[in-house]
C-alpha cells in the first residue's frame, strides 16, 4: 500500500491522529494511538459522547432488555409459573429509568478514559476541508480547523428510513424512536426480522405486547444456525408472537386509533405501533467526503481494504460506517487495528473467530462455522449437543429451553463452531472462541474439569456427546 507523501512529515500537523466519532470504534482507535505516544484528538457532537452505541443503540437496548427480564420475572417463570411478575403494571418510566442511569454513567466513563489518555475532545460536527484538514462546527456556530496526519472515520450509523413510510414518532417509529415511546403498546408490528428487529420483538413480547414480525425474506436471522433459529421461533410463539415471513409491506396507515399495515399479498394487520427495522444508514452525510476525495454508497457506507484504509492510505474507516458486521465488539477491534496499522505497529486480527451476540430473549451467540458452511465445503464434522434442562445449573436458573451445539472435525477433532441459545449465551461463547483461536481440539473439553454446577458444564456434555458419536463411527469401521 502506498503512503501519503505528507504523512511522513508529522511536524506539519496539529495532530498525529484525528478520530471523527467517539463510539466503540472511534474511542478504541483514539486510545490505542495515544498509548503509542501520539497526539490524538476526537471530534464528537456534544450530546453524543460515546456515539450511537451509548446513546441510542447497544447500551440503551441491552439495558432495556435487562429491565424487561427483571420486571417481568421472565427468567423465573419456569420455576414459579407463567403468571409470575415482579411488577404487575410495568410502565415506560419503570423501563427507561434504568436505561437513563446506565447511559449517563457510560458517557462519563468514555469521557474519562479519553481524557485520562490525554486525548483532546473537540465538541461539534466534523467534516473534511481537504484530505488532511478537518473542520469542526460547534453548537454555537464557531468553526475550528486543524490538520491531521492520519484520520479515522468512526461516525456510526442511524436507522434506515424508507421513503415510502411516514414516520410520525408516535405510532410509526424506527429502532431509535422505540426508546421514546410514551407507553407500552398492547400490540406492535415489527418490520424486519434482522438482529435489531428480533431483539426488540422479543422484549416487547416478554412485556405482554402482541407482536407480529414481517419480513420479505423467507427466514429470520439468516446468519444463525437453523436449529437455534427454530428454537427461538418456538419460544417467541409461546409468547404469542406471529410471523409473516416472505411477506412485503405495501404501506402503513396511521391515525388516532393506531396503525394498519398493508401487505402486498392483500393482508392487513392492525396494531397500536409499527416499528421499522430496515437496516442501518452510515452517518456520512455531514462529513463532506468529496472534499477528501472519498465517497459513500447509497447506504452511506465507506469502502475500505483489509487494513481499514480508504482510497486515501492515511484515512481509515471503522465500525458501522463500513457495514457488516456492524457490532460494537467488532468495531472496537477495528478501531484498535486501524490505529496500529496507521503507525506501523504490529497487530493480529482473529477475524475467523469473532463472536456474534444477539440479545433476544433468550440470547443467541455463535462463533466459527455453521453446519451449512461445513457441508458446502465438504468438511467432515460431528455435532455435540448439551441441553440446559439436563444441567443442574439449568434447573437452578429456570432455563429449560437453552442448548449448546459444538461442531467438531471428525478427523482432527478440531473445534470448528459453537452455537448457543439460552441464558448467558453471549458470555458462554467465549470459552469456545478461545479454544478455536488457539487451534484447540474437543479433547481439551473432555479432559478438563469445569466448575459444577455451572452452565459452562454444557461444553463438557456436548464434547462428550460429539466424542461418543465419533467413537461409534470408528468402532463400526473396525468391524
TrEMBL record:
Q: Which UniProt keywords apply?
A: Cytoplasm, FAD, Flavoprotein, NAD, NADP, Nucleotide-binding, Oxidoreductase
Occurrences of domain Pyridine nucleotide-disulphide oxidoreductase dimerisation (ranges): 355-462
**Per the UniProt record, which EC number(s) apply here?**
1.6.1.1
Name its co-factor(s).
FAD
Can you supply one Gene Ontology CC term for this chain's record? cytosol
Cofactor notes: Binds 1 FAD per subunit.
* BP GO terms, sorted: 2-oxoglutarate metabolic process
Identify the residues that bind FAD: 62, 126, 155-157, 320
Coiled-coil ranges from the UniProt annotation: none
List the subcellular locations. Cytoplasm
Keyword Ligase tagged: no
Q: Does the keyword Nucleotide-binding apply?
A: yes
Gene Ontology MF terms = dihydrolipoyl dehydrogenase (NADH) activity; flavin adenine dinucleotide binding; NAD(P)+ transhydrogenase (Si-specific) activity
Residue ranges annotated for the FAD/NAD(P)-binding domain, each copy included? 15-335
Q: What does this protein do?
A: Conversion of NADPH, generated by peripheral catabolic pathways, to NADH, which can enter the respiratory chain for energy generation.
Family the entry assigns: Belongs to the class-I pyridine nucleotide-disulfide oxidoreductase family.
* Name of the protein: NAD(P)(+) transhydrogenase (Si-specific)
Amino acid at each position: 500500500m502506498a503512503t501519503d507523501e505528507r504523512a511522513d512529515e508529522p511536524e506539519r500537523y496539529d495532530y498525529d491522529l484525528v478520530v471523527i466519532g467517539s463510539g466503540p470504534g472511534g474511542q478504541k482507535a483514539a486510545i490505542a494511538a495515544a498509548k503509542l505516544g501520539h497526539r490524538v484528538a476526537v471530534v464528537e457532537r456534544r450530546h453524543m459522547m460515546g456515539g450511537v452505541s451509548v446513546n441510542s443503540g447497544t447500551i440503551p437496548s441491552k439495558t432495556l432488555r435487562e429491565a424487561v427480564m427483571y420486571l417481568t420475572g421472565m427468567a423465573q417463570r419456569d420455576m414459579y409459573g407463567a403468571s409470575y411478575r415482579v411488577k404487575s403494571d410495568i410502565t415506560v418510566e419503570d423501563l427507561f429509568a434504568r436505561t437513563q442511569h446506565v447511559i449517563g454513567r457510560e458517557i462519563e466513563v468514555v469521557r474519562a478514559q479519553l481524557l485520562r489518555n490525554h486525548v483532546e475532545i473537540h465538541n461539534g460536527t466534523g467534516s473534511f476541508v481537504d484530505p488532511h484538514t478537518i473542520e469542526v462546527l460547534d453548537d454555537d456556530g464557531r468553526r475550528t480547523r486543524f490538520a491531521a496526519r492520519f484520520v479515522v472515520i468512526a461516525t456510526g450509523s442511524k436507522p434506515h428510513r424508507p421513503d415510502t413510510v411516514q414516520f410520525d414518532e408516535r405510532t410509526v417509529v424506527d429502532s431509535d424512536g422505540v426508546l421514546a415511546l410514551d407507553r407500552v403498546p398492547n400490540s406492535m408490528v415489527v418490520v424486519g426480522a434482522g438482529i435489531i428487529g428480533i431483539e426488540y420483538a422479543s422484549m416487547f413480547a416478554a412485556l405482554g405486547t402482541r407482536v407480529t414480525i414481517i419480513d420479505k425474506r423467507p427466514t429470520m436471522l439468516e446468519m444463525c444456525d437453523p436449529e437455534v433459529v427454530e428454537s427461538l421461533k418456538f419460544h417467541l410463539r409461546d409468547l404469542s408472537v406471529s410471523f409473516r415471513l416472505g411477506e412485503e409491506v405495501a404501506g402503513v396507515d396511521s391515525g388516532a386509533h393506531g396503525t394498519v399495515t398493508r401487505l402486498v399479498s392483500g393482508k392487513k394487520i392492525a396494531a397500536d405501533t409499527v416499528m421499522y427495522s430496515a437496516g442501518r444508514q452510515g452517518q456520512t452525510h455531514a462529513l463532506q467526503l468529496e472534499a477528501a476525495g472519498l465517497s459513500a454508497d447509497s447506504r452511506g457506507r465507506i469502502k475500505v481494504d483489509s487494513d481499514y484504509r480508504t482510497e486515501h492510505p492515511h484515512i481509515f474507516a471503522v465500525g458501522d460506517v463500513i457495514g457488516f458486521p456492524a457490532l460494537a465488539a467488532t468495531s472496537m477491534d477495528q478501531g484498535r487495528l486501524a490505529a496500529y496499522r496507521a503507525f506501523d505497529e504490529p497487530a493480529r486480527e482473529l477475524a475467523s473467530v469473532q463472536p456474534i451476540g444477539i440479545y433476544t430473549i433468550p440470547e443467541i451467540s455463535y462463533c466459527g462455522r455453521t453446519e451449512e458452511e461445513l457441508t458446502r465445503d465438504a468438511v467432515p464434522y460431528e455435532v455435540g449437543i448439551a441441553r440446559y434442562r439436563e444441567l443442574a445449573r439449568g434447573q437452578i436458573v429456570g432455563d429449560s429451553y437453552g442448548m449448546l451445539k459444538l461442531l467438531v472435525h471428525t478427523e482432527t477433532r478440531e473445534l470448528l463452531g459453537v452455537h448457543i441459545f439460552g441464558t448467558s449465551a453471549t458470555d458462554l461463547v467465549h470459552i469456545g472462541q478461545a479454544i478455536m483461536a488457539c487451534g484447540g481440539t474437543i479433547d481439551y473439553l473432555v479432559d478438563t474439569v469445569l466448575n459444577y454446577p455451572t452452565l459452562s458444564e454444557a461444553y463438557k456434555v456436548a464434547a462428550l456427546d460429539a466424542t461418543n458419536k465419533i467413537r461409534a463411527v470408528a468402532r463400526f469401521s473396525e468391524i
